[in-house]
């Protein structure tokens, strides 16, 4: 079984922003992804824990699952990297092998 998906990378470059994307995003979805891909929770890098986020975009026809990491190599405190996978909502039930799916996220 194949699931086709797009990928998006957010990170810090003169502010937190979209760095790369394999698809075009409309302005509302881009704003939502910009906000939800930024660092949330503990910003003390010694106590930071990577986390996943999931949310709908494209009026509920697509779903995003994202992983966020603390950007330790950045000099500015509180920077993060977020790798997002965007897939069609009808493919969501096909994600039955969670360890395999989570292995696609890369910092």
Fold and architecture overview:
The protein has 107 residues and is mainly beta. The protein has two helices and five strands. Strand 1 and strand 2 form a beta hairpin. The mean pLDDT is 89.
Oligomer: single chain
Give the low-pLDDT segments: none
State the order of secondary-structure elements, H for helix, E for strand: EEHEEEH
Indicate the structural class: mainly beta
> Strands of the biggest beta sheet: in what spatial order?
2-1-5-4-3
Sheet having the most strands? 5 strands, antiparallel
- Computed over alpha carbons, the radius of gyration is 14 Å
Q: Distance between termini?
A: 26 Å
Q: In one word, what is the shape?
A: globular
Q: What is the number of beta strands?
A: 5
Percent strand equals: 35-45%
Mean pLDDT: 89
Number of helices: 2
Q: Helical amount among residues, as a percent range?
A: 10-25%
Give the gist of this structure:
The protein is mainly beta. The chain is built from two helices and five strands; from the N terminus they run E-E-H-E-E-E-H.
Could you name the key traits of this structure?
mainly beta; 2 helices; globular
Q: Topology of this structure?
A:
Blueprint: E1 5-12, E2 16-21, H1 27-36, E3 51-57, E4 62-70, E5 80-88, H2 98-102
């Amino acid at each position: 079984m194949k699931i086709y998906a797009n990928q998006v990378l957010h990170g810090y470059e003169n502010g937190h922003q979209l760095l790369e994307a394999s698809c075009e995003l409309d302005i509302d979805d881009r704003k939502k992804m910009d906000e939800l891909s930024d660092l949330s929770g503990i910003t003390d890098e010694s106590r930071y824990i990577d986390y996943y986020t999931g949310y709908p975009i494209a009026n509920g026809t697509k779903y995003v699952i994202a992983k966020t990491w603390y950007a330790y190599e950045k000099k500015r405190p509180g920077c993060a990297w977020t790798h997002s996978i965007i897939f069609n909502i009808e493919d969501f039930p096909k994600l039955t092998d969670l360890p395999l799916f989570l292995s696609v996220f890369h910092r």
